[in-house]
Amino acid sequence: MINLESLLSVQGGIAALRFSDDGALIESVGELEQTHSRLAADICYANGRMMQQGGDMLMTLSGMKGWSPYGWMMMGDERSICTVAGVACFVRNSEASFNEVLHVLSEVGYQ
Prior knowledge:
Blueprint: H1 5-8, E1 13-19, E2 25-30, H2 34-62, E3 71-75, E4 79-84, E5 87-92, H3 98-109
Antiparallel strand pairs: 1-2, 1-5, 3-4, 4-5
């Protein structure tokens, strides 16, 4: 079975977490303190809800279906966060293959 630990084995993986449908932290692994993991879960949940709202607006305004977000990603100068289906992964940009990160993240998020 694929778990959060598999995201740490992805090149550049720093930390990973799983959060519930209300933003509560379920589990975390890697280099995040528990307090930061709880805050990250909250932020990931909130950002996911905003992405959903944006997708709904695009669908309404364009009349085209298929705008429901599968996940989202935010890239910083040195680190990024990628999320899919209630799972988030933090990576170092200089080391990460984002194709690999998203592939493993999808497997973990939809198991």
